[in-house]
Design goal:
This protein is α/β, with parallel strands linked by helices. 37% of the residues lie in helices and 15% in strands. The chain has helices at 26-36, 45-58, 69-80, 97-104, 123-129, 149-159, 210-220, 254-264, 267-285, 320-329, 345-349, 358-366, 378-395, and strands at residues 62-66, 87-91, 108-112, 134-140, 162-166, 174-175, 178-179, 186-190, 203-207, 224-225, 242-243, 291-292, 300-301, 307-311, 367-370. The strands form 4 sheets. The chain has a 7-stranded mixed beta sheet with strand order 1-9-8-5-4-2-3, with helices on both faces. A 3-stranded antiparallel beta sheet has the order 7-6-13, with no helix packed on it. Helix 2 runs parallel beside helix 8 and helix 3 (69-80) packs across helix 7 (210-220). The protein is globular, with a radius of gyration of 22 Å.
């Protein structure tokens, strides 16, 4: 048996690779440089162009671009009218921002458990959590796979709830042939560097509701408007604007928008490469009883942001930590996504306790994310597969 690198053996590869990485090419750099030479470098023509492009990509009627994905979630929660006394159901397995946006508005996140095979929010768990105080759902397309829209929409219609889709992982994904971004009441995207397309930072909210769109545009920029119809004291002077509500400075720069426009032109090839890598991983790991492969919904045509390697503890003589450290030492460096949100110490202080979502907690104890991004070569992918097999062979029961 080959000795693991963590115990002094030779690692599978010399140069480490990590779970995610941006792909910035010369045309991306050229687009940013050209924009920096313009007069307007914040909220200029590239921002408007990006919003139109996002409508084309997602099929939504309206798009509002913002500083980051967290800002997108915050504004969506504000536009939904969440406030003190309200409850909003959120998936337990997600980045903290999906729940924090509810807290920002003074409402209370209520955590729903996940499906044991897809790792997305479980509609049956959602149904059991609804009370007269429930005002909405923040459902996360975890790893890029679409949530179960049919079931969640039925729940929202029945109980008059606002459906916010956290699609930070899911640009390019489709559900029953319809692009993510045009289905929920509001859909939020993130353009952080590890996502499929990036602006360095950046986010967006898409919607088909004009009333929501107008409010999102207003609260993105301090709650200030130049639209006389929205003013309390209308004035047609060219210089006049009026703050009509409390808003935020969540604007995006024009050079970020230029980078994202360039990146979105490459979304088809980025998506195709990610799918090809996922296919190779699935083929390799589905034959290994020590590894559990994430189930793909037939309704979801997924552009995968994360590839989850889930361990079968009944087949291995190691903990998740031991497996993680061994894989890291082979220079195929994993990450973990995510600690159930309510397990963070801040949420513990708010009164949330361990045991709320047993399936999510079991998932967390067994899961890690392995490298998945456009720039991975076929050799890189084979190195990851070889490293996983090497660690499995060492710890196999």
């Amino acid at each position: 048996m080959e000795k693991l690198a963590i115990f002094g053996g030779c690692p599978v590869r010399e140069k480490p690779i990590f779970y995610g990485r941006q792909c910035i090419e010369q045309d991306d750099i050229d687009a940013v440089v050209e924009t920096l030479k313009n007069d307007l470098i914040t909220c200029g023509p590239r921002v408007e162009e990006l919003e139109k492009k996002l409508c084309e990509v997602t099929g939504a009627k309206y798009a509002v671009v913002v500083a980051n994905g967290t800002a997108a979630l915050h504004l969506a929660a504000l536009a939904a009218g969440f406030g003190p006394g309200d409850e909003v159901i959120v998936s337990a397995i997600t980045f903290a921002a999906s729940a924090n946006c509810v807290l920002y508005c003074g409402a209370r996140p209520v955590f729903a458990d996940i499906r044991p095979d897809t790792y997305n929010i479980d509609p049956e768990a959602v149904r059991k959590l609804i009370t007269p105080r429930t005002k909405g759902i923040v459902a996360v397309d975890f790893t890029g796979q679409a949530v179960e829209h049919d079931a969640l929409h039925e729940i929202c219609r029945k109980h008059n709830l606002t459906f916010i889709e956290d699609a930070a992982h899911a640009i390019g994904t489709k559900y029953r042939g319809q692009p993510i971004g045009s289905i929920a009441d509001m859909t939020c995207f993130s353009f952080h560097p590890v996502k499929t397309v990036t602006g360095g930072e950046g986010g967006a909210i898409t919607t088909n509701d004009e009333v929501l769109y107008r409010r999102l545009m207003r609260v993105r920029t301090h709650g200030i408007t130049r639209n006389q119809e929205e003013m309390v004291h209308p004035d047609d002077a060219k210089w006049y604007n009026e703050q009509v509500e409390l808003g935020y400075n969540y604007r995006m720069t024009d050079f970020q928008a230029a980078l994202l426009l360039s990146q979105l032109n490459k979304l088809p090839k980025f998506s195709a490469r990610r799918k090809a890598i996922v296919k190779k991983y699935d083929e390799a790991f589905s034959q290994m009883p020590e590894i559990v492969v994430q189930r793909e919904l037939p309704e979801s045509d997924t552009t995968r942001h994360l590839y989850i390697l889930r361990l079968n503890p009944e087949r291995l003589n190691c903990s998740r930590r031991e497996f993680f450290d061994a894989l890291y030492a082979e220079n195929t460096c994993p990450q973990v996504h995510y600690l159930p949100v309510y397990r963070h110490s801040y949420y513990e202080k708010l009164g949330y306790e361990k045991g709320l979502c047993p399936t999510a907690e079991k998932y967390y104890e067994e899961a890690m994310s392995i490298p998945l991004y456009y720039g991975l070569t076929d050799e890189d992918v084979e190195d990851v597969i070889m490293a996983v097999k090497k660690v499995v062979q060492f710890y196999r029961k």
